[in-house]
TrEMBL record:
Keyword Hydrolase tagged: yes
Enzyme class (EC, first level): hydrolase
Source organism: Lachnobacterium bovis DSM 14045
A Pfam family per the record: ASD1_dom
Record-given protein name: non-reducing end alpha-L-arabinofuranosidase
Positions of the Alpha-L-arabinofuranosidase C-terminal domain: 303-494
């Protein structure tokens, strides 16, 4: 019999809400059309931000939003995106589709969006092609309260008060699109640039994010930390609050990737196996970071993750627009459970990307909007934000899969906040339901306060603009409370949330 034992005696680390963060880049229809339509649009908007999208995003409690890239960040010159919109420079978005970027969404619009969402801010600076002065002036423009050229410019552009920048990334993927640097070269650049990311308001310190590795490039993590580490962990901590990691799941590899909606059962397991690899990556990068920061003050920020499939037929390949099925829901459920379990080191993560790009939580078409299966996983898992992790262990779980793509039947994570225990479970089987006995170490009798599920009998199930509710979150009823626990039957291909008090 499969069992899940939950240690409800000892509360472990706090799950940083920012693990449930999002990423929005000037890429395809993420910012333009997806989030921002402009004040004059017929699509209902508040100060240019789509009302329907903002409303939907507020329901999943977005904790932080990373912007403006991505690869776009290292070519972005922030002064192009301020002041009178009719006079803003039009540039070519060289990375993404070669389209015209009219800069109508810039710094002021980003902070307006974050205000509407009620989320923290994460600006990614330009180290690849920008100067130290440019980066330092951006920080001054955004955060300085007193009298200075940049603060005056901000006021002239209509914003008297400074904003709060919660996180500032010093470059993006500088091993690749951000300048093709070696780790030592980047680390020395990082040391220099981060010096000028000033904390003008000591009460609102900016957390600095150093560019970390691509997938399993442990050499990068090691060398960047080594070059930034002079004497003590405290000194390193003065230089950086986070180091990033980027990992995307493309089932058939980078060149082929594979269709978002048309896939075999073998590919289902291959995708989930690749999602599970996040655990190995976090373990291995963390063990390197531990050598320089044993007290775990530097967070590992997985600020780009998600599925990356072949774009939808007929769409601009540079726009990275893809559909989102139950398979994406499982990738999200598996990954978020992994982040929860590593909350001692993983302090932030941003799914790529928020709207219309890669593993989006929302898709739009003109005035229409749909919530994807991934959206509903974020909606259920929001209860983990800021909760304390509880230790949980599974036994009697079989290995399933096709060919060499072998995965466990179930993955889980458990947390506690305000006396409510939230259990999130994934059934990775495409075909078989699973019975599970859940028990608690204290023997305390709990009652279920809420239980929800995202599932389908078809692993390809997804929402379209004509059928927007094929997959959605519904009440979960397949459980029975028994002495010291629960008996649960988890349907195949599902993500479940059970909350008990
Ligand atoms: O999210 C799409 C792209 O993936 C980002 O711009 C880049 O950082 C990564 O390679």
């Amino acid at each position: 019999m499969a069992k899940l034992v939950i240690n409800d005696i000892e509360e472990k680390n706090r799950i940083a809400p920012e693990i449930y963060g999002h990423f929005s880049e000037h890429l395809g229809r993420c910012i333009y059309e997806g989030l921002y339509v402009g004040e004059k649009s017929d699509i209902p908007n508040v100060n240019g931000m789509r009302k329907d999208v903002v409303e939907a995003l507020k329901e999943i409690d977005v904790p932080v939003l990373r912007w403006p890239g991505g690869c776009f960040a290292d070519e972005y010159h922030w002064k192009d995106g301020i002041g009178d919109k009719s006079k803003r420079k039009k540039i070519i978005n060289t990375h993404w589709g070669g389209v015209v970027e009219d800069n109508s969404f810039g710094t002021h619009e980003y902070f307006e969006l974050c205000k509407q969402l009620g989320c923290k801010t994460y600006i990614n600076g330009n180290l690849g092609s920008g100067t130290v002065q440019e980066m330092s002036e951006w920080v001054e423009y955004m955060t300085f309260k007193g009298v200075s050229p940049m603060a005056e410019l901000r006021k002239k552009n209509g914003h008297e008060e400074p904003w709060k920048v919660d996180y500032f990334g010093v470059g993006n993927e500088n091993w690749g699109c951000g300048g093709n640097m070696t780790p030592d070269f980047y680390a020395n650049m990082y040391r220099r640039y981060q010096t000028y990311v000033r904390n003008y308001d000591p009460e609102k310190p900016i957390q600095k994010v150093c560019c970390g590795a691509n997938v399993d490039d442990y050499h990068w993590t090691k060398h960047v930390l080594n070059t930034c580490y002079d004497h003590t962990p405290e000194q390193l901590h003065g230089f950086m609050d986070h180091i990033s990691l980027h990992y995307y799941v493309h089932p058939e590899g980078w060149d082929i990737k594979g269709s978002a909606t048309d896939f075999s059962e073998e590919c289902w397991y291959k995708t989930l196996k690749k999602a599970l690899y996040m655990d190995t990556l976090i373990n291995r990068h963390s063990s390197i970071i531990d050598q320089y920061d044993p007290d775990k003050k530097v967070g590992l920020s997985v600020d780009e993750w998600g599925t990356w499939f072949t774009c939808e037929p007929g769409t601009n390949p540079g726009f990275l627009y893809q559909q989102n099925t139950m398979r994406d829901a499982l990738v999200a459920g598996i990954t978020l459970n992994i982040f929860n379990k590593h909350c001692d080191r993983v302090k932030m993560a941003c799914i790529a990307q928020m709207v219309n790009v890669l593993q989006a939580v929302i898709l739009t078409e003109g005035e229409k909007m749909i919530k994807t299966p991934t959206y509903y996983v974020f909606h259920m898992y929001r209860h983990h934000q800021g909760a304390k992790l509880l230790e949980s262990s599974l036994s009697g779980i079989n290995e399933i899969g096709e060919c060499e793509w072998i995965v466990p039947e179930i993955t889980e994570s458990v947390s506690k906040k305000d006396d409510i225990v939230t259990i999130t479970l994934n059934n990775l089987s495409a075909t078989d339901k699973k019975d599970l006995d859940i028990s608690f170490v204290t023997g305390k009798e709990y009652e279920v306060v809420e239980a929800n599920i995202v599932t389908s009998s078809d692993m390809h199930a997804h929402n379209t603009f004509d059928s927007p509710e094929v997959v959605k979150e519904i009440t979960f009823k397949n459980y029975k409370t028994v002495k010291n626990g629960l008996k649960v039957t988890i349907p195949a291909c599902s993500v479940v949330e059970i909350r008990v008090r």
